[in-house]
């Protein structure tokens, strides 16, 4: 069997480990052949391929990014897009099935293509950890580690100058990165999309910290909304899936805090630093296991499925079930963290 592998959407630590796990298991155990699809769905639409063998994946588990490249291309658009044209491209290359590694947008596209008859298995990729059908997704642990280190570093400069520091992390719809990094880094408030807060409440937390002789450090998800805001802050237009590009909420809140409290306030947007660099040991292991499980799902002809982590076990779920809703931060988890605020 000849299997195509693509990585689509935002890059993330652990993508290369998934590729390596799939290729090594497929070649060593199942006598499979692999082809890499460059730049996500774009490469599949345009027929841009590369050979994947044991030599090309050597040492990949510790390498960040993706050797295949990625994009946010919509596979249903363009002259060569759509299931009929894509199937013709696969047939011409002799590709029997595809392993699509990506997040919500990628998996939704994979489900639609599978419904149209293509043979696809998905691997969940999102540092936001927002897919309901898997306990953890690779890249999340690394992103939390990076954000926690940033909080630790910013705390020292905050204390030196008596400033309030706001650290903005990724999290479009859910606040898992902010919650975990904020708790690990000892943040004085954690602001997440699931829990809108008033600027008055935020300033109250900040002033409590100041009154105790400390420099306030806050963590905010990019998708956080102040009470009364209808949409998350977006000033960068839309992506290929018509989703707003978020970022900058910390820079909006910082002057509001400074004006109301008199405390000099600075914002730091971590942005794509959370996606870059080498994956953590946990993410390397998880990504490798997911890649190996994806090959098993291909050989079991479980089209339209996605591999997932439940507890410590690999399971197969339908992509439709995986993308039907988001895994949000429960109220109990936020209440647990809020005990530490202020």
UniProtKB/TrEMBL annotation:
<comment type="pathway">
    <text>Carbohydrate degradation; glycolysis; D-glyceraldehyde 3-phosphate and glycerone phosphate from D-glucose: step 3/4.</text>
</comment>
<comment type="function">
    <text>Catalyzes the phosphorylation of D-fructose 6-phosphate to fructose 1,6-bisphosphate by ATP, the first committing step of glycolysis.</text>
</comment>
<keyword id="KW-0067">ATP-binding</keyword>
<dbReference type="GO" id="GO:0048029">
    <property type="term" value="F:monosaccharide binding"/>
</dbReference>
<dbReference type="GO" id="GO:0042802">
    <property type="term" value="F:identical protein binding"/>
</dbReference>
<feature type="active site" description="Proton acceptor">
    <location>
        <position position="128"/>
    </location>
</feature>
<dbReference type="InterPro" id="IPR035966">
    <property type="entry name" value="PKF_sf"/>
</dbReference>
<dbReference type="GO" id="GO:0016208">
    <property type="term" value="F:AMP binding"/>
</dbReference>
<dbReference type="GO" id="GO:0003872">
    <property type="term" value="F:6-phosphofructokinase activity"/>
</dbReference>
<dbReference type="InterPro" id="IPR000023">
    <property type="entry name" value="Phosphofructokinase_dom"/>
</dbReference>
<keyword id="KW-0547">Nucleotide-binding</keyword>
<dbReference type="GO" id="GO:0061621">
    <property type="term" value="P:canonical glycolysis"/>
</dbReference>
<feature type="binding site" description="in other chain">
    <location>
        <begin position="126"/>
        <end position="128"/>
    </location>
    <ligand>
        <name>substrate</name>
    </ligand>
</feature>
<feature type="domain" description="Phosphofructokinase">
    <location>
        <begin position="2"/>
        <end position="298"/>
    </location>
</feature>
<comment type="similarity">
    <text>Belongs to the phosphofructokinase type A (PFKA) family. Mixed-substrate PFK group III subfamily.</text>
</comment>
<dbReference type="InterPro" id="IPR022953">
    <property type="entry name" value="ATP_PFK"/>
</dbReference>
<feature type="binding site">
    <location>
        <position position="10"/>
    </location>
    <ligand>
        <name>ATP</name>
    </ligand>
</feature>
<dbReference type="GO" id="GO:0046872">
    <property type="term" value="F:metal ion binding"/>
</dbReference>
<dbReference type="GO" id="GO:0030388">
    <property type="term" value="P:fructose 1,6-bisphosphate metabolic process"/>
</dbReference>
<dbReference type="GO" id="GO:0006002">
    <property type="term" value="P:fructose 6-phosphate metabolic process"/>
</dbReference>
<dbReference type="GO" id="GO:0005945">
    <property type="term" value="C:6-phosphofructokinase complex"/>
</dbReference>
<dbReference type="GO" id="GO:0047334">
    <property type="term" value="F:diphosphate-fructose-6-phosphate 1-phosphotransferase activity"/>
</dbReference>
<dbReference type="GO" id="GO:0070095">
    <property type="term" value="F:fructose-6-phosphate binding"/>
</dbReference>
<feature type="binding site">
    <location>
        <position position="104"/>
    </location>
    <ligand>
        <name>Mg(2+)</name>
    </ligand>
</feature>
<keyword id="KW-0418">Kinase</keyword>
<comment type="subunit">
    <text>Homodimer or homotetramer.</text>
</comment>
<keyword id="KW-0460">Magnesium</keyword>
<feature type="binding site" description="in other chain">
    <location>
        <position position="222"/>
    </location>
    <ligand>
        <name>substrate</name>
    </ligand>
</feature>
<keyword id="KW-0324">Glycolysis</keyword>
<keyword id="KW-0479">Metal-binding</keyword>
<keyword id="KW-0963">Cytoplasm</keyword>
<dbReference type="Pfam" id="PF00365">
    <property type="entry name" value="PFK"/>
</dbReference>
<feature type="binding site" description="in other chain">
    <location>
        <begin position="272"/>
        <end position="275"/>
    </location>
    <ligand>
        <name>substrate</name>
    </ligand>
</feature>
<dbReference type="InterPro" id="IPR012003">
    <property type="entry name" value="ATP_PFK_prok-type"/>
</dbReference>
<feature type="binding site">
    <location>
        <position position="266"/>
    </location>
    <ligand>
        <name>substrate</name>
    </ligand>
</feature>
<protein>
    <recommendedName>
        <fullName>ATP-dependent 6-phosphofructokinase</fullName>
        <ecNumber>2.7.1.11</ecNumber>
    </recommendedName>
</protein>
<feature type="site" description="Important for substrate specificity; cannot use PPi as phosphoryl donor">
    <location>
        <position position="105"/>
    </location>
</feature>
<dbReference type="InterPro" id="IPR015912">
    <property type="entry name" value="Phosphofructokinase_CS"/>
</dbReference>
<feature type="binding site">
    <location>
        <begin position="103"/>
        <end position="106"/>
    </location>
    <ligand>
        <name>ATP</name>
    </ligand>
</feature>
<feature type="binding site">
    <location>
        <position position="163"/>
    </location>
    <ligand>
        <name>substrate</name>
    </ligand>
</feature>
<dbReference type="InterPro" id="IPR012829">
    <property type="entry name" value="Phosphofructokinase_III"/>
</dbReference>
<feature type="binding site" description="in other chain">
    <location>
        <begin position="170"/>
        <end position="172"/>
    </location>
    <ligand>
        <name>substrate</name>
    </ligand>
</feature>
């Amino acid at each position: 069997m000849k299997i195509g592998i693509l990585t689509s959407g935002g890059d993330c630590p652990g993508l290369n480990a998934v590729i390596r796990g799939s290729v090594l298991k497929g070649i060593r155990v199942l006598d499979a052949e692999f082809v890499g699809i460059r730049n996500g769905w774009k490469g599949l639409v345009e027929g841009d391929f590369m050979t994947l063998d044991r030599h090309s994946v050597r040492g990949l588990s510790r390498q960040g990014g993706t050797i295949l490249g990625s994009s946010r291309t919509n596979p249903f658009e363009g002259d060569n897009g759509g299931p009929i044209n894509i199937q013709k491209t696969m047939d011409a290359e002799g590709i029997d099935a595809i392993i699509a590694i990506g997040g919500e947008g990628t998996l939704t596209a994979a489900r639609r293509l599978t419904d149209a008859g293509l043979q696809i298995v998905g691997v969940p990729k999102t540092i936001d950890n927002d897919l309901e059908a898997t306990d953890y997704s690779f890249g999340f642990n690394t992103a939390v580690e990076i954000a926690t280190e940033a909080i630790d570093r910013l705390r020292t400069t905050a204390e030196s100058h008596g400033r309030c520091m706001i650290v903005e992390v990724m999290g479009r719809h859910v606040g898992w990165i902010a919650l975990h990094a904020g708790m690990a880094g000892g943040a004085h408030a954690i602001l997440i999309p699931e829990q809108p807060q008033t600027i008055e409440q935020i300033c109250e937390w900040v002033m409590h910290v100041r009154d105790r002789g400390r420099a306030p450090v806050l963590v905010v998800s990019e998708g956080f909304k102040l009470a009364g805001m209808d949409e998350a802050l977006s000033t960068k237009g839309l992506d290929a899936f018509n989703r707003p590009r978020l970022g900058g909420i910390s820079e909006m809140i910082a002057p509001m805090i400074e004006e109301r409290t008199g405390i000099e306030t600075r914002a730091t947007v971590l942005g794509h630093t959370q996606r870059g660099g080498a994956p953590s040991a946990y993410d390397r292991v998880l990504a490798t296991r997911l890649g190996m499980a994806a090959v098993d799902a291909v050989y079991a002809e479980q089209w339209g499925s996605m591999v997932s982590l439940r507890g410590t076990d690999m399971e197969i779920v339908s992509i439709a079930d995986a993308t039907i809703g988001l895994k949000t931060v429960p109220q109990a988890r936020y209440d647990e963290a809020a005990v530490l605020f202020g």
